[in-house]
Amino acid sequence: MLTLEDFRRYAHEMVDYMAGYFDRIESLPVRAQVSPGQISAQIPQECPAQAEPMEQILADVDRIVLPGMTHWQSPGFMAFFPANSSYASVIAEMLTAAFGAQCMKWETSPAATEVEGRMVEWLRDLCALPSHWQGVIQDSATSSTLTALLTARERASGFFTNRQGLQSFPVLRVYCSEEAHSSIEKAVKVIGIGSENLVKIPVDQRFALRVDLLEEAIQNDLAAGFVPCCVVAALGTTGVTAFDPLEKIALLCMRYKIWLHVDAAYAGTAFMLPEYRHLARGLEYADSYVFNPHKWLFVNFDCSVYYVKDKDCLLQTLELVPEYLRSLNHSGVNNYCDWGLPLGRRFRALKLWFVLRSFGADGIRTILRNQLDYASWLEEQLQAHPRMELLAPRTLNLLCFRYVPHNETDNSTIDTFNELLLNALNQSGKVYMTHTRLRGRFVIRLHTGQTYIERRHVEAVWNLITATASELEAGQGRC
Ligand SMILES: *Cc1c(COP(=O)(O)O)cnc(C)c1O
């Protein structure tokens, strides 16, 4: 075991290593360029019986681990959605690890509970969310949405299913758009509603849920004796950041007394900017809401905030007080283990506190606006380019496009071309993007949401995309 003196020494070394890593991150291939099994082949099959020197362990980080890392904090990372970090966040995370506290009850770490309480209030007010909402930090949007659906299930059954299970209760139904995130289907499976009772509503031209079809589905279900339980509306879908028409959905939910959960995992950060708040119109009618500071708010994973209108309903769904925790119930405090699934909880609020204070709200807004400008600049380039096609409207800083080779009209040939293009781009090591399919077509997706991205990176990526595409097209013409 290391001594405290060893800790001091190697921890300092590690900080230098981390700073060096950030310094040279742009020279590393964004997407790991290894094949399956290549890393595990370098790790012994058994745990060493004798202690190994730290020097050797640290050397193996460079030798074994680093080549197998995909660099999510590289400004060339444009895949999926970002999972941003920032220097302040990493500093806080080190301290969280040092405290190593379990923050389930107020008493198990009063500071963790009370900082968390303040941070969810700060975020609520920064994003102009309804002031009566109460929030908690969860590990992921997946957990937040699971919690929402569980609470919706209990409200729909008058807390019957918590006691007796679903066996003797009518079929519950959940609704979301075809573009909604897979975490909804996962939650519906986990809580026993069953994926066949998740009704996926078709989307319109902008990939937003069609409210007319939602109402039709609800009416059909009522006629069939089903119990509509929850609608999950997406603000910023994963595929194209589409925004469902929240206000209209909310009116339906009120009319039919259905729980309204809103998933803004990525796009929620945009509501820090007043000019984007119109996209959240109707949010005040929601029963629950999730967004992930660990995506676009410079707080490293994991940090998902979950808000509810009716805290008592949430607690009634989840609260359990086993004997060994009974003495820990103080009045007038939050015991956050009752606000989500796991008992044990990390002190996640600390990194939020560091980030929000060290950037300042205005500092964050400036970065967000710059990143939105980069996307708008790229959109202009794409629109002006004779071979490029945008396949979804841009709302924030995500672009969905494809390259159409000269005179090519066959969609499956165009799909194959874009798959090859995406592969070539990712193999260059300079950038990492992913794809989606829209109305059956292969589409390249890129965002400009990475913490450290600057205009020069965006310009370089645009040049790389167009040069690679022309080369590929010329190469194909030759054979
Ligand atoms: C990323 C994402 C999720 C899942 O987030 P996790 O925190 O990884 O569970 C859910 N919904 C949407 C819209 C997302 O973009």
Provide tags for this entry.
binds pyridoxal-5'-phosphate; 16 helices; alpha/beta; 479 residues; seven-stranded mixed β-sheet; 44% helix; single chain; 11 strands
Question: What does this entry look like structurally?
Answer:
The chain is an alpha/beta fold and 479 residues long. Helix content is 44%, strand content 12%. The chain has 16 helices and eleven strands. The chain has a seven-stranded mixed beta sheet with strand order 1-7-6-5-4-2-3, with helices on both faces. It has a four-stranded antiparallel beta sheet with strand order 8-9-11-10, with helices on one face. The model has no long low-confidence stretch (mean pLDDT 96). The structure holds pyridoxal-5'-phosphate. Pyridoxal-5'-phosphate binds next to helix 5.
Enumerate the spans where pLDDT stays under 50 for 5 or more consecutive residues: none
The 3D shape can be described as globular
- The number of distinct helices, counting runs of at least 4 residues, comes to 16
Largest sheet: 7 strands, mixed
Structural class, judged by helices and strands? alpha/beta
Series of secondary-structure elements, N-terminal to C-terminal: HHHHEHHEHEHEHEEHEHHHHEEHEEH
